[in-house]
Amino acid sequence: MAGMNAIPAPLATPEPTPVAAAGQARRITHPVQVGKVQLGGGAPVVVQSMTNTDTADVAGTVRQVAELWRAGSELVRVTVNNPESAAAVPRIVDKLAMMGIEVPIIGDFHYNGHQLLTNEPACAQALAKYRINPGNVGFGKKRDTQFAQLIELAIQYDKPVRIGANWGSLDQSLAAQLMDENARRATPWDATAVLREALIRSALDSAHRAVEIGLPAERIVLSAKVSGVQELIAVYRDLARRSPFALHLGLTEAGIGSKGIVASCAALAVLLQEGIGDTIRISLTPEPGASRTQEVIVAQELLQTTGLRAFTPMVTACPGCGRTTSEFFQELAKVVQEHVRGKMPEWKITRPGAEHMTLAVMGCVVNGPGESRHANIGISLPGTGEAPSAPVFVDGEKTVTLRGENIAQAFVALIDEYVDAHYSRSAA
């Protein structure tokens, strides 16, 4: 941004009271309140997602937000790109509230956000947070003015802001300035390092400018997204070192299917294990016709497998080999996973703590009994040529042996009985 390119003095860092997670101290950031959800300040890492509906389609957007929320998304972002979508936001929030869904809705703005929020004050009020991109908030002389307008609107409506720089929409004037400065160095950096610095500076300079305008640091979240795994790790390590702002993690344009999942998890897992990151989004391209909720499930499983949070009972399952020529153990693992995920919205309210339960569905005698003993509830199914019986272990002790055609139903019933016996009903 013009007038914002001098390296700013660092803001005061919050008191270092690290929260241990997965053996790694969390980076303590300014706490940011988004509706009833806290980001940073030692709070658990928050899962968020984004709709891909036309926001002006109120019914369609409400339906998708509800699906994402039921899957476990704690924040949901919607595109606000024209007057119709801005006018729809309050109606979307109202309809969600009528359904008992109070998930904070974030407005994603580019180019014309200052106009939309000014012209639709009900939208400005209904949104829980604004997301703005310093690379396309405005161009030329209008850039600083329009950025300031957005920040002033956030101050007026008491809203937090995510300042989200992106590799694909980098502030070109800042990039050009840093390239010129680099050319004058005795030992110039390579072009990638300069562009990475431009991305970081775009986010940091904009955040410091927002603070100068009057937005508290406790209402600022930063992101600096790229599409490469190693680049993302390098950018966020540097961003975390240079500022105390809460950070939103995500690999932009991660891709479709396993490629997007693997790339996102490869990058975010490293950062999360280093204590970096206050909220995450897995930016998957859905398979044609597939549910948008997959990105939520992947985010939850990433946080749970790294030991940072628990969302649903974890199922350890045998991968299968020549000893397990029957598909029954695969079918049972799927039944168990779908059962506990389906029950979790109810258990979250009536059986708090059930999300920490561990389950094992194993396919033969080699590792089956051992893995089953490590789980709260485990079953060791017979492999090829083994006796047609399935011992069940509860908290390390063998309790019953299942046989016959109804093993799946019987095992699921044992899981439900365990939850009823071990997790007390909440006051609600």
TrEMBL record:
<feature type="region of interest" description="Disordered">
    <location>
        <begin position="1"/>
        <end position="24"/>
    </location>
</feature>
<feature type="binding site">
    <location>
        <position position="364"/>
    </location>
    <ligand>
        <name>[4Fe-4S] cluster</name>
    </ligand>
</feature>
<protein>
    <recommendedName>
        <fullName>4-hydroxy-3-methylbut-2-en-1-yl diphosphate synthase (flavodoxin)</fullName>
        <ecNumber>1.17.7.3</ecNumber>
    </recommendedName>
</protein>
<comment type="function">
    <text>Converts 2C-methyl-D-erythritol 2,4-cyclodiphosphate (ME-2,4cPP) into 1-hydroxy-2-methyl-2-(E)-butenyl 4-diphosphate.</text>
</comment>
<comment type="similarity">
    <text>Belongs to the IspG family.</text>
</comment>
<feature type="binding site">
    <location>
        <position position="371"/>
    </location>
    <ligand>
        <name>[4Fe-4S] cluster</name>
    </ligand>
</feature>
<keyword id="KW-0411">Iron-sulfur</keyword>
<keyword id="KW-0414">Isoprene biosynthesis</keyword>
<dbReference type="GO" id="GO:0046429">
    <property type="term" value="F:4-hydroxy-3-methylbut-2-en-1-yl diphosphate synthase activity (ferredoxin)"/>
</dbReference>
<dbReference type="GO" id="GO:0019288">
    <property type="term" value="P:isopentenyl diphosphate biosynthetic process, methylerythritol 4-phosphate pathway"/>
</dbReference>
<dbReference type="Pfam" id="PF26540">
    <property type="entry name" value="GcpE_C"/>
</dbReference>
<dbReference type="InterPro" id="IPR058579">
    <property type="entry name" value="IspG_C"/>
</dbReference>
<dbReference type="GO" id="GO:0141197">
    <property type="term" value="F:4-hydroxy-3-methylbut-2-enyl-diphosphate synthase activity (flavodoxin)"/>
</dbReference>
<keyword id="KW-0004">4Fe-4S</keyword>
<feature type="binding site">
    <location>
        <position position="321"/>
    </location>
    <ligand>
        <name>[4Fe-4S] cluster</name>
    </ligand>
</feature>
<keyword id="KW-0560">Oxidoreductase</keyword>
<dbReference type="GO" id="GO:0005506">
    <property type="term" value="F:iron ion binding"/>
</dbReference>
<keyword id="KW-0408">Iron</keyword>
<feature type="binding site">
    <location>
        <position position="318"/>
    </location>
    <ligand>
        <name>[4Fe-4S] cluster</name>
    </ligand>
</feature>
<feature type="domain" description="IspG C-terminal">
    <location>
        <begin position="315"/>
        <end position="416"/>
    </location>
</feature>
<dbReference type="GO" id="GO:0016114">
    <property type="term" value="P:terpenoid biosynthetic process"/>
</dbReference>
<keyword id="KW-0479">Metal-binding</keyword>
<comment type="pathway">
    <text>Isoprenoid biosynthesis; isopentenyl diphosphate biosynthesis via DXP pathway; isopentenyl diphosphate from 1-deoxy-D-xylulose 5-phosphate: step 5/6.</text>
</comment>
<dbReference type="InterPro" id="IPR004588">
    <property type="entry name" value="IspG_bac-typ"/>
</dbReference>
<dbReference type="InterPro" id="IPR016425">
    <property type="entry name" value="IspG_bac"/>
</dbReference>
<dbReference type="GO" id="GO:0051539">
    <property type="term" value="F:4 iron, 4 sulfur cluster binding"/>
</dbReference>
<dbReference type="InterPro" id="IPR045854">
    <property type="entry name" value="NO2/SO3_Rdtase_4Fe4S_sf"/>
</dbReference>
<dbReference type="InterPro" id="IPR058578">
    <property type="entry name" value="IspG_TIM"/>
</dbReference>
<dbReference type="InterPro" id="IPR011005">
    <property type="entry name" value="Dihydropteroate_synth-like_sf"/>
</dbReference>
<dbReference type="Pfam" id="PF04551">
    <property type="entry name" value="GcpE"/>
</dbReference>
<feature type="domain" description="IspG TIM-barrel">
    <location>
        <begin position="29"/>
        <end position="299"/>
    </location>
</feature>
